[in-house]
Each structure stands twice: as structure tokens, then as C-alpha cells.
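Section 5.1 Outputs to date
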Amino acid sequence: QVQLMESGGGLVQPGGSLGLSCAASGSRFLINDMGWYRQAPGKQRELVAAITRGGRTNYADSVKGRFTISRDNAKNTVYLQMNSLRPEDTAVYYCNAFLIVGSRVDYWGQGTQVTVSS
């Protein structure tokens, strides 16, 4: 099974920056898409950003222009650079990766807390 190892969460002030990293290990198959989701208290989990194996990206409207997702296929690692952070960005951020072995299989990180507060 695939394990996702996350790092980079923490507390930052509004307007600050934070970088998240997630490395996938244990997969014998090519990983298709990787991405970041977040869930705030009382809210549903939502997509923040995703990136295909070929490098095509997709962002939630609320983070466009502020967040940048990237990946290193050789390292099976996905990154999320978060700039101009706002209190509304406060949430638990989850790394996601999926691969197709006959059908789609999703794997999730444990989640890392990002808190934006003055």
C-alpha cells in the first residue's frame, strides 16, 4: 500500500507564507494525480489544488494566484506553496494521491494543521 508522508504545517500570520510537502512511498505503480485538500471545522473537505502526472494543474478559485502546486515524479512528491495566507485558509490540509490498478485507488495523508492567525 501507498503511504503519504506530509510535512510543513504550522501557524503563520495573515499575509505570511507556508510550504507543504508530501512524499508517497510504497507504490509499485505510477501515481496519476496528486493534490491537496483541506477541511475546516464544520465544513466539507474541499479541493485546494491538484496536479496530474503530466503537470497540468487545477486550483480552487479561492487560492488562485496565491498557492502553487508542483510535483517531482521521480520522488513521488507533491508540494504546495502557500503565499498571502488568510485566516480563511485555516484548515487541516490533506495530501491525496491516486493510481489506477484496474480501477481508481485513492490514498490520503494524515492531515496537517495550517492555522492563519495574528
